[in-house]
Structure formats: structure tokens, C-alpha cells
Amino acid sequence: MKNTIEIKNISKKIKDKTILKNISFEAKEGRVTAFLGPNGPGKSSTLRILLGLDKADSGTALIDGDVYTNFKQPLLKVGVSFDGVGSPDDRTVYQYLKIIATSNGINSSKIKEVVKMTNIENKLKSHIGSLSLGESKRLGIATALLGEPQFLILDEPTNGLDPQGIKWFREFIKSLAQKGKTILLSSHILSEVEVITDDIVIINNGEILITGSLKEVLMNEKSLEDVFFKLTEGGK
């Protein structure tokens, strides 16, 4: 299927412990897919495999039918905000974005566009180390958008955002989905996920517990939190 992220029968062991057990799911074009689960092996391990940072023992993780490591200028295809900014604290926001843009063959004029989109225009001259957690999250999203990618993979995108920032993110991510982007995000803030997501994937102890549209997953439950805790806590 075109413009789809596909996790197919992924299994992974670390030493004698199985951390992913033959998991499969998809993130589709024009939809926000939320990848949810408690702390522990599962979400991060899957995303690391998808981004070529780790290897599966079996199965495939594909973005538009190919593996992430085959993309020579990945930001033109896939925008990623994962594991923080990863820059020296004394580098400015502009310097950081300039390096990322140049390494992916992206014109530096895009920098002003993405900082405007993420409301950090006034931080271009600020050092990375001086940014708040929320500002760092906005910078991560700005970085992901530099190449106007079809695919967005966002890890805890609202962590550290103030209420105004969360409201901005809701509207922003919905607008990107409406433009046909394929969005896969992970988050612990279930109430926010319920507002923005189209499809749900819940993982626990390395196994997929449920997948489907938000409506299908909610069924007769009042909220996504109710579904999540019922599945991950054994109905407690």
C-alpha cells in the first residue's frame, strides 16, 4: 500500500528475553496512528528497528515499501523526532537546523518556514542548552518538517508543552493528516491522543494487544484510558 508504514512479524530478543513477539501493524496515509504502551520493552524497541537503530531477529519494518537506512537523504522522505535533539548545548538553534538541512540537501530557506510553523522564530539565536523541554520538543518537530516529508514519526511530541503548546499541536498535527501525511506517534498522554488520533495500536510486554480505528478500539468504553488500563492491567 502506498505511503504506509508497515511493521510485519517483527520479533526481537535481548539475551534470553523476548522483547518483541511477532508484532504487526500499519500506519496509513492521511491518518494519525498512535502507538501506545506502558514503560518497558515495546514501543521504543519497535521505533528503533523502524529507524535502523537496531535490528530485528525476524520480520520487516518498512516505510513506503523500503527500509529507512536505504534513504540517502532521509529527511526528504521521513521526518523524525525521537530521543531528543542530540546537539551540543552551545550550538544555536539556527546552526543546528542549518547542519541538518545541509546534510540532507535541503535549502536553508526552509529553516525560517519550519520555525515559524512551530512557533520558535524567536529562538533561532538561542543555544540548544538554554531551551525548555517544550521548546526542545518544538525544535524536534521543526527538524522533522525540514524536508517536507510524507512520513512523520514522533516520540512523545507533547511532553513538556504548556496548554497553549498542546492546543497548537492538536491543530497542527490534524492539519498535516488532512494534507495526506502519514503520521506515527507514541505518547503517554492518553487524553491528548484520543483527541488527535485516527488509529490505535497498543503494545504490552512485547505483544500487540489491539489495533484498529479509535472508534473500533473504544467500543463500549468511555475513554481511551479505560481501554488502555483494562488491557494492560488485566482488567483491573
Helix content: 25-40%
Measured distance between first and last alpha carbons: 38 Å
Widest sheet: strand order?
Answer: 5-6-7-3-8-9
**CATH fold-level name of the largest domain:** Rossmann fold
How many helices? Answer: 8
Order of helices and strands: EEEHEEHHHEHEHEEHH
Query: Which homologous superfamily in CATH is the superfamily of the largest domain?
Result: P-loop containing nucleotide triphosphate hydrolases
- The percent range for strand residues is 25-35%
- The whole-angstrom Rg is 18 Å
Q: What's the CATH C level of the largest domain?
A: Alpha Beta
What's the rounded overall pLDDT mean?
92
Main sheet makeup: 6 strands, mixed
Any idea what the CATH architecture of the largest domain is? Answer: 3-Layer(aba) Sandwich
Shape: globular
Poorly predicted segments: none
Counting helices, strands and paired strands, the structural category is alpha/beta
Set down the secondary structure blueprint.
Blueprint: E1 5-14, E2 17-27, E3 32-36, H1 43-50, E4 58-63, E5 78-81, H2 93-103, H3 109-117, H4 133-145, E6 151-155, H5 163-178, E7 182-186, H6 190-196, E8 199-204, E9 207-213, H7 214-218, H8 224-232
Parallel strand pairs: 3-7, 3-8, 5-6, 6-7
Antiparallel strand pairs: 1-2, 1-4, 8-9
Helix pairs in contact: 3-4
In words, what does this structure look like?
Helix 3 packs across helix 4 (133-145). The strands form two sheets. The chain has a six-stranded mixed β-sheet. A three-stranded antiparallel β-sheet has the order 2-1-4. The protein contains eight helices and nine strands. It has helices at 43-50, 93-103, 109-117, 133-145, 163-178, 190-196, 214-218, 224-232, and strands at residues 5-14, 17-27, 32-36, 58-63, 78-81, 151-155, 182-186, 199-204, 207-213. The protein is α/β, with parallel strands linked by helices and 236 residues long. The N and C termini lie far apart (38 Å). It folds into two domains: 1-64 and 150-236, Rossmann fold, CATH 3.40.50.300; 71-77 and 85-148, no CATH class.
